[in-house]
Design brief:
D-Maltodextrin-Binding Protein, domain 2, single chain, alpha/beta, 347 residues, 14 helices, 3-stranded mixed sheet, 9-stranded mixed sheet
């Protein structure tokens, strides 16, 4: 039996577990004769977004293949918010983030004396999906998403018919990102109108793979998560076209790239501890590889690469130790690639 796209997605998660173990042994840098090196490279610690995880993990794997002397790279998933709590406490070198750093996180980093370098690395889309056996919904408006997800809907909006009168009177079962996820922050702001404003009676997880499985198993389900997870399982999921007022648009790499899939397209980031970048050669070398060579693996991981101009600006900012953020502590909706380029150029 051939491995399905979904199985490949789950296998990728297993592969990353094995990869983490492999990193430990590769990072030890043992010679062919079994001798230990004189000085062991320092471990690189990464946490944060499950959405950015596939990109960073793919690049880390390729980086490890460059030689046995490469350091151990530990990549965990705590969600963007959970990752920032560790990052701003100085516990990690890099935070994967599916949204810009928020004001309270900026304050936490400042209080702990943690300076950070903000580096955009890809574009992503949030995909609203249903079970493929759903034969009534093909598109959805932002107003209908708000009606489903706003706090006032909790315990009240419980059927599909309550959202659109032409839909059947069947139970509505929701799957979405957990509260520590940057995807949760962005989705609620884009649909409800306020970040973190959501009903609580839904199946929540920071692990997008669990959400994928939930929708696949539930005929009456609707969920949302990052595009790469949809792309891995597109044969077993059905994406809804999003109508934000100008007509319904399906998510795809092309509609993300040309800016027509809005407001659910967004840039992705890594944040690097500036002190670690300065004092840990392992971190500096890895980030240089990430920005210069890793961009080719963004597409492999299922995301939309940024224009070369943005990557080149990121390299310059990193080399110059440019700290801070261009987003003023909040997400920017309807941000197109050219807008991101302008922000980076003015940074």
């Amino acid at each position: 039996m051939n491995l399905s796209s979904l199985d490949r997605g789950w296998a990728r998660q297993s592969r990353h577990f094995v990869l983490a173990v492999s990193f430990l042994f590769l990072g030890m840098g043992c010679s062919a004769e079994g001798d230990l090196p004189e000085s062991k490279p320092q471990k690189i610690t990464i946490d944060g977004s499950s959405t950015v995880f596939p990109i960073t993990s793919e690049i880390a794997q390729e980086y490890q293949l460059l030689g046995a002397e490469k350091p151990e790279i530990q990549i965990d998933i705590s969600g963007t918010g959970g990752g920032f709590r560790k990052f701003c406490a100085g516990e990690t070198d890099i935070n994967n983030a599916s949204r810009p750093i928020l004001k309270d996180e900026m304050a936490a980093c400042k209080s702990a004396g943690v300076k950070y370098i903000e580096l955009p690395i890809a574009y992503d889309a949030l995909v609203v999906v249903v079970n493929p056996k759903n034969d009534w919904a093909d598109d959805i408006t932002l107003a209908e998403l708000k009606k489903m997800w706003e706090p006032e809907a909790e315990g009240k909006v419980t059927t599909w018919k309550q959202v659109r009168s032409s839909w059947p009177d069947r139970p509505l079962k929701l799957y979405g990102a957990g509260r520590d996820s940057g995807t949760f922050d962005y989705f609620t702001e884009a649909t409800v109108g306020e970040a973190k404003s959501s009903r609580n009676d839904y199946t929540a997880s920071e692990d997008d793979t669990l959400l994928v499985r939930g929708v696949i198993r539930d005929t009456e389900a609707l969920g949302y998560f990052g595009y790469s997870y949809y792309e891995e399982a597109f044969r077993t999921l059905k994406a809804l076209a999003i109508d934000s007022g100008g007509g319904a648009v399906l998510p795809s790499r092309d509609t993300v790239r040309n800016g027509t899939y809005q407001p659910l397209s967004r840039p992705l980031f890594i944040y690097v501890n500036a002190e670690a970048a300065k004092n840990k050669p392992e971190v500096r070398s890895f980030i240089e590889y990430y920005l210069n060579e890793g961009r080719q693996f963004v597409k492999v991981a299922g995301y939309v690469p940024l224009p070369d101009e943005v990557y080149n600006l990121a390299v310059t900012h990193f080399e110059n130790g440019k700290v801070g953020t261009v987003f003023e502590g909040k997400s920017k909706l309807n941000l197109k690639m050219e807008d991101l380029l302008q922000k980076e150029a003015e940074f």
